[in-house]
Amino acid sequence: MEIFKSTSRVNFMRVRKLAIGASAIVIALAIVSLAVQGFKYGIEFTGGVVVEVTYPEAVSTRQIRATLTAAGFEDQTVQQFGSPTDIVVRLPPKAGEASKEVAKGVVTALQAATPGVQEKRVTTVGPQVGSQLRTQGTLALLVALLLIFVYLMVRYEWRFALGGIFATLHDLFIVMGVFSITGWEFNLNVLAAILAMLGYSVNDTVVIFDRIRENFHRMRRGSVYEIVNVSVNQTLSRTIMTAGMTMLVVIALLVVGGPPLRGFSIALAIGITVGTYSSIYIASASAYMLGASRQHFIKKKKPGAEAENNQP
Question: Do residues 207 and 239 make contact, with C-beta atoms less than 8 angstroms apart?
Answer without folding.
Answer: yes
